[in-house]
Amino acid sequence: MATGRYSLGSNEALGVNSNYANSGLGKMERPVGNLGAEEKTERGEGSKAIELLTSDGGRKRKRSCFSEEEVLIMTNMTDAFNHVANALRETGPAHVDVDLYHAVMDMPSFTKEALIVAFSHLLDHKAQGTAYVNMVDRHRVLWLRTFLAKNYYM
Q1: How many CB atoms lie within 10 A of CB 9?
Q2: What is the DSSP code string of the chain?
Q3: Which of 30, 58, 93, 123 lies 20 to 30 angstroms, CA to CA, from 107?
Q4: pLDDT tens digits for 5-58?
Q5: In this predicted structure, what is the pLDDT of residue 65?
Q6: CA distance 151 to 154
Q7: What is the DSSP string of 142-154?
Q8: Which residue has the higher pLDDT, 89 or 8?
Q9: Where are the domains of the chain?
């Protein structure tokens, strides 16, 4: 997750960072509304609220644009969305090649237990499963022998 000067707000376009000059000389200051020329926007970290930094004789003071209740709601919503996104990433796609089961389980001269081990492996590794289904029978036998020998199953 990007933080500090590398983070973007939720309403800003990706790939365009308007706070930095094209020459890379640093941050460009932008006035916000009618708050005065000395005030500038500063990006918060993660799910923190947007804050304004003001100068008071060289000191900077933070003021929140949102009430405490709004900040709490935004933080909770962000955390909930992050949990959902992480759960979706962990589950992965549920697509299984319809021919995979029969391509593995109908192989002669292997025990059912060994074929189940291979089938389970191919379910967990989609690219290998797809390649296995597209192989000719003699290459499937070779793949099964090699895989089962590597995994001490034969």
Answers
A1: 9
A2: ---GGG---TTS-TT--TTB-TT---BPP---TTS-TT-EEE--STTPPPEEEEEETTEEEEEESS-HHHHHHHHHHHHHHHHHHHHHHHH------TTHHHHHHT-TTS-HHHHHHHHHHHHH-HHHHHHHHHS-HHHHHHHHHHHHHHTT--
A3: 93
A4: 666 666 666 665 555 444 444 444 444 444 444 434 444 444 444 444 444 555
A5: 83
A6: 8
A7: HHHHHHHHHTT--
A8: 89
A9: 1-66, 100-150
* Residue 2: pLDDT band with limits 50, 70, 90: low
User: Residue 66: is its pLDDT beyond 80?
Assistant: yes
Amino acid at 28: M
Q: Give per-residue burial for 133-147: e unless 16+ CB within 10 Å, then b.
A: beeeeeebeebbeeb
Contact 121, 128 (CB under 8 A): yes
Write down the residue that tokens 């796609």 correspond to. Answer: 93
